[in-house]
Design a protein that fits this description.
The chain is α/β, with parallel strands linked by helices. It has 14 helices and 17 strands. It is elongated, with a radius of gyration of 24 Å. The relative contact order is 0.13. Bound molecules: L-homoserine (HSE). L-homoserine (HSE) binds next to α7.
Length: about 450
């Protein structure tokens, strides 16, 4: 049988890794797919031949991405350019030309996925995006297929390798934020714009996709609450540690009677949870299903070969399904497209979590009582309070508090009032806290 012909857009970190894996494992992949797979045409504006093995097996390399998506010989287009434009136009053109698409582009799927999937359905082609979430970890396959029997209750994931790498190095080695970020960029983990990593936007793209797959709702990136790690301080990492917690940058989505939570933020989690011990560039996604209970998926969330592993697995899936009736394929968002639900995504003010608070206050009688009183008036129950030593010559002391679960709106109101107290100095630090105990 003729090889399946691939058009490859982009020869950067993941594009190069994809060429390497397809070439190195060609025979094994063909045994699985039932057909040989050949990159007929790759388009890239620039690439480093020294970093990519297997370039010699590519039929043609040019800088003409439009020619790749229009090439009648090509069956599957792999989009590894990243970003919104021209990736969106090229993907839609490929679909329009009847080609299946494999992409690692989480920004594109999270923000334009509804439109892309609708176009693919009209044309009867597949769009596969395993590499868009958690790199090499097959979490999309697990949610769409392996857990299809379950009501998913919640998901909590470390889904940005760069952020996890930075938090881990800061905690373990006391390294400087900027220095660790530069290392992540040099290793090819970070996004082209690294603020996407440290401000949580990349994780929010991925969480948006996970939330849709878990609960069968349309992609709604704009409703995902996003807070990054750039304001995490070494003292909070240390104090969380003393209390038995680790700070991780989590993407959390949960089904509640009122709606669906979609939130990315730094989170204190008990250090004894497996996921609290996921360090460095590794990713992990904890999924709680009603039948299966908690399940954990772990692996490399970024980097050339791990991400290529997911890209090539998608190519194999598409090749296996080339001759199937489009209505019998696994739906893009796990649920049949006419079965997607309009369950609302909750605003952050309506979300309930527990909190870690650090309040810098004058060390004088009545201050703690005043703060505790305001929390009490908002229905906030205190789980623990710890007063730390003041810095030399300072009359203010850090008060560390852990609270029970409360609506974010109540906490906002309480913190506004506490912040306004004359005895409180500096900005109150608030980090959300989750038990992740099912
Ligand atoms: N910048 C991303 C990360 C790459 O650090 O996880 C994979 O999406």
């Amino acid at each position: 049988m003729e090889p399946v012909k691939i058009g490859l857009l982009g020869l950067g970190t993941v594009g190069g890794g994809t060429v390497t894996v397809l070439t190195r494992n060609a025979a094994e992949i063909a045994r699985r797919a039932g057909r040989a797979i050949q990159i007929a045409h790759a388009a890239a504006r620039a690439y480093d031949p020294a970093r990519i093995s297997g370039l010699g097996d590519i039929g043609r390399i040019s800088d003409d991405a439009a020619a790749v998506v229009a090439d009648p010989e090509i069956d599957i287009v792999i989009e590894l350019i990243g970003g919104y434009s021209p990736a969106l136009e090229l993907v839609l053109a490929a679909i329009d030309n009847g080609k299946h698409v494999v992409t690692a582009n989480k920004a594109l799927i999270a923000t334009h996925g509804n439109e892309i999937f609708a176009a693919a359905r009209r044309r009867g082609v597949m769009v596969a995006f395993e590499a868009a979430v958690a790199g090499g970890v097959p979490i999309i396959k697990a949610l769409r297929e392996g857990l299809a029997a379950n009501h998913i209750e919640w998901i909590a994931g470390i889904i940005n390798g760069t952020g996890n790498f930075i938090l881990t190095e800061m905690r373990d080695k006391g390294r400087d934020f900027g220095e660790v970020l530069a290392e992540a960029q040099a290793r090819g983990y970070a996004e082209a714009d690294p603020t996407f990593d440290v401000e949580g936007i990349d994780a929010a793209h991925k969480l948006t996709i996970l939330g849709s797959l878990a609960f069968g709702i349309p992609l709604q990136f704009e409703k995902t609450f996003t807070e990054g790690i750039s304001r995490i301080q070494a003292q909070d990492v240390a104090w969380a540690g003393e209390l038995g917690y680790r700070i991780k940058h989590l993407g959390i989505t949960r089904r509640t009677p009122a709606g669906i939570e979609m939130r990315v933020h730094p989170t204190l989690i008990p250090h004894r949870r497996l996921i609290a011990n996921v360090d460095g560039v590794m990713n992990a996604v904890l999924v709680k299903g009603d039948a299966v209970g908690p399940t954990l998926y772990y692996g490399a969330g970024a980097g050339a070969l791990p991400t290529a592993s997911a890209v090539v697995a998608d190519v194999v899936d598409v090749v296996r399904a080339l001759t199937t009736d489009p209505t019998n394929r696994v739906p893009h968002l796990a649920f049949q497209p006419d079965e997607l639900s309009d369950t609302p995504v909750l605003p952050m003010e309506a979300v309930e979590t527990a909190y870690y608070l650090r309040i810098t206050a004058l060390d004088r009688p009545g201050v703690m009582a005043r703060i505790a009183g305001i929390l009490g008036e908002q229905g906030i129950s205190i789980e623990a309070i710890n007063q730390k030593e003041p810095a030399a010559g300072d009359t203010h002391v850090p008060l560390i508090m852990l609270t029970h679960r409360v609506r974010e709106a109540n906490m906002n109101e309480a913190l506004d009032r506490i912040q306004a107290l004359e005895a409180v100095a500096g900005e109150i630090v608030r980090i959300r806290m989750e038990g992740l105990d099912g």
